[in-house]
Design brief:
By secondary structure, this protein is an alpha+beta fold. The protein has one domain: N-terminal domain of TfIIb, CATH 2.20.25. Strands 1, 2, 3, 4 and 5 form a 5-stranded antiparallel beta sheet that branches. It comes from Obba rivulosa. Interacts with TRM9. GO terms for molecular function: protein heterodimerization activity. Pfam families: Trm112p (PF03966).
């Protein structure tokens, strides 16, 4: 499933596309909100792995402006609830993720991204 927790780890892997290939940009997406169990310890432990600007930009592409521009030093439950929602409850069901460098499009269908490349695109 394409959630922002997954999206934050994905980059373009087309042969020769090695710069400005992250984060992938969402295009023509349909999202669905699905409740997920809140686990503040998981979120606190996962936070250091997040590329914050990419997460905030992706959330804004999907219409969510709840996260601050900068990752906060002090983390309270209210912030963790917002982070939980953005990372784990927003599901991209249809659309595409597009590389900002080479414009390769990775389609999303039924919540599943197709990250496979054609033979000539593999490096």
């Amino acid at each position: 499933m394409v959630r922002l927790i997954t999206h934050n780890l994905l980059a373009c892997h087309v042969k020769g596309c090695t710069s400005n290939n992250f984060p992938l940009q969402f295009k023509d997406v349909q999202i669905e909100l699905r409740e997920a169990e809140f686990n503040p310890d998981f979120l606190r432990n996962f936070m250091p792995r997040i590329e914050w600007k990419a997460l905030v930009d992706a959330a804004r592409q999907l219409g969510d402006t709840s996260l601050p521009e900068e990752q906060p030093e002090m983390v309270d439950d209210e912030f963790l609830q917002k982070l939980h929602h953005v990372l784990l409850e927003v599901h991209v069901e249809e659309g595409a993720m597009v590389c900002p460098n080479c414009n390769h499009s990775y389609p999303i269908s039924n919540g599943i991204p197709n990250m496979l490349l054609a033979e000539h695109e593999i490096g």
